[in-house]
């Protein structure tokens, strides 16, 4: 039995191919998000796809380091890694190249990242992110700006039924500080909170046997979800300075969110511990109806830049472009897919008129494709329709007078004829350019 040739040309696991229509949708999402970012005063930055592994490692934890794709630099012998996260790269750049820039620094990016991980909902081992980093502001206004921009991005994409879940890592840390338990038990508590496993949490609190007020606070964490009511309940439970400061910060962020008019889109979750080892304060994730995974997330990471020798508060967020596309598909959000403005069909042997028309229209900014394959007029017009062309220009077809161009408006097919010379002289008069 001969081997199947197709088996040798498959994509590797975790790779994603975007065919033309898919690529157009992807570019639409990225352009919409970048437009939002620039409207808020963020400037685009482009980071390298790979750097030295030991440099990137300064800004990443061990778990993420293990998921990096690594290779050896032939010139130096040093270990390289494909970026698995953009934020550590930007942290290094701020600590070195942008160290003397006036604060705050607002940076935006649209790029791909690579992680050796099992593919997830809408995400592959190479996936795309669009995000921002706000460097040099430690005030709650910065955190509120991240949430407001996320909501604006969701609206720009036409998504409905979204919700932003907001937590505060320092609130939980303050409670865990009070327990003073060993690392292993603290990790068990973290896992129980991550899963919102009330029975496991109850067992652990019973075994640790903290003070009564602290036991009440720990057991209440999975239920501290809501808005002002959640803040009020958390305030009655917090009895340490760290948790109290965290609540003050979150309360101010939520006050600003209300001023933005976004209170209905935001839910506070004081027991949320996702990204607990990464975030240093307010953090959030965005969810939309019809998709179980978050499509955007971010938060404060004040210690990150300090790992590169420059202490500086920072916050940011990123959209997962693949998941955005999946959410748009699930919700039926359509993206207009345009073809060429003009499609030129030429039956003359010298090609002068066709090439002149194409060049003239392109000089005016129009997109022009030519039908170079020899076939009948009806077949060529059918092909133009499939390519979503707006207008067909026909030169030299049977029954046409010399020096004329026939203009067919698609998809309806309304037809007019003009002099080629006249159209070349003033195309905007005869064509929709």
Write structural notes for this entry.
Helix 1 runs antiparallel to helix 5, helix 1 crosses helix 12 and helix 10 packs antiparallel against helix 11. The strands form three sheets. Strands 1-5-6-12-11-10-7-9-8 form a nine-stranded mixed beta sheet, sandwiched between helices. It has a five-stranded mixed beta sheet with strand order 14-13-15-16-17, with helices on both faces. The mean pLDDT is 93. It has 433 residues and is of the alpha+beta class. The protein has two domains: 312 residues, BirA Bifunctional Protein, domain 2; 89 residues, Rossmann fold. The longest helix is centred in the first third of the chain and has 20 residues. Strand 3 and strand 4 form a beta hairpin. Helix content is 40%, strand content 21%. It is elongated, with a radius of gyration of 28 Å. It contains 16 helices and 17 strands.
Brief write-up:
With 433 residues, the protein is of the alpha+beta class. 40% of the residues lie in helices and 21% in strands.
Give the class-level CATH name of the largest domain.
Answer: Alpha Beta
How do the strands of the widest beta sheet line up side by side? Answer: 1-5-6-12-11-10-7-9-8
Mass-distribution shape: elongated
Percent strand equals: 15-25%
User: What is the number of helical segments per DSSP (H or I, 4+ residues)?
Assistant: 16
Measured distance between first and last alpha carbons? 58 Å
Could you say how many structural domains there are in total? 2
CATH architecture of the largest domain: 2-Layer Sandwich
Helix content: 40-55%
| Biggest sheet architecture | 9 strands, mixed
Q: CATH topology of the largest domain, anyone?
A: BirA Bifunctional Protein, domain 2
- State the total count of DSSP E strands: 17
Question: Which residues form runs of ≥5 with pLDDT under 50?
Answer: none
Classification by helices and strands: alpha+beta
Overall residue-averaged pLDDT value: 93
Q: What is the C-alpha radius of gyration, as a whole number of Å?
A: 28 Å
Query: For this structure, what is the CATH homologous superfamily of the largest domain?
Result: Bira Bifunctional Protein, Domain 2
């Amino acid at each position: 039995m001969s081997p199947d040739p197709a088996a040798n040309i498959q994509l590797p696991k975790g790779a994603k191919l975007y065919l033309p229509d898919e690529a157009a949708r992807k570019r639409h999402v990225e352009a919409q998000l970048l437009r939002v970012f620039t409207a808020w005063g963020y400037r685009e930055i482009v980071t390298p796809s790979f750097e030295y592994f030991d440099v990137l490692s300064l800004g990443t934890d061990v778990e993420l380091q293990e998921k990096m794709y690594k290779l050896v630099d032939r010139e130096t012998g040093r270990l390289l890694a494909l970026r698995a996260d953009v934020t550590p790269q930007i942290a290094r750049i701020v600590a070195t190249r942008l160290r003397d820039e006036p604060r705050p620094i607002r940076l935006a990016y649209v790029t791909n990242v690579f992680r050796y991980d099992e593919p997830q909902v809408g995400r592959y081992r190479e996936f795309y992110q669009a995000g921002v980093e706000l460097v040099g502001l430690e005030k709650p206004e910065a955190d509120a700006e991240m949430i407001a921009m996320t909501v604006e991005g969701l609206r720009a994409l036409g998504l409905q039924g979204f919700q932003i879940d907001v937590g505060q890592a320092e609130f939980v840390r303050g409670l865990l500080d009070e327990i003073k338990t060993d690392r292993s038990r603290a990790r068990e508590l973290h896992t129980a909170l991550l899963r919102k496993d009330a029975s496991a949490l109850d067992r652990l609190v019973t075994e640790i046997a903290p003070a009564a007020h602290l036991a009440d606070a720990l057991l209440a964490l999975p239920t501290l979800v809501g808005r002002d009511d959640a803040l009020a309940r958390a305030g009655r439970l917090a009895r340490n300075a760290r948790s109290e400061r965290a609540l003050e910060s979150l309360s101010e962020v939520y006050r600003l969110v209300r001023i933005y008019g976004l209170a209905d889109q935001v839910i506070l979750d004081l027991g949320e511990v996702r990204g607990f080892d990464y975030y240093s304060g307010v953090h959030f994730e965005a969810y939309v109806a019809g998709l179980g995974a978050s499509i955007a997330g971010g938060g404060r990471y004040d210690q990150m830049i300090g790992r590169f020798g420059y202490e500086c508060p920072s916050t940011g967020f990123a959209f997962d472009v693949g998941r955005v596309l999946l959410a748009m598909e699930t919700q039926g959000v359509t993206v207009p897919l345009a073809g060429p403005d003009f499609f030129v069909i030429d039956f003359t042997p010298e090609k002068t008129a066709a090439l002149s028309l194409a060049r003239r229209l392109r000089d005016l900014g129009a997109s022009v494709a030519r039908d170079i394959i020899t076939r009948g007029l009806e077949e060529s017009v059918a092909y133009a329709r499939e390519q979503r062309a707006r207008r067909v220009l026909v030169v030299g077809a049977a029954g046409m007078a010399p020096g004329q161009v026939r203009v067919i408006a698609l998809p309806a097919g309304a037809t007019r004829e003009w002099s080629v010379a006249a159209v070349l002289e003033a195309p905007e008069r005869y064509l929709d350019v």
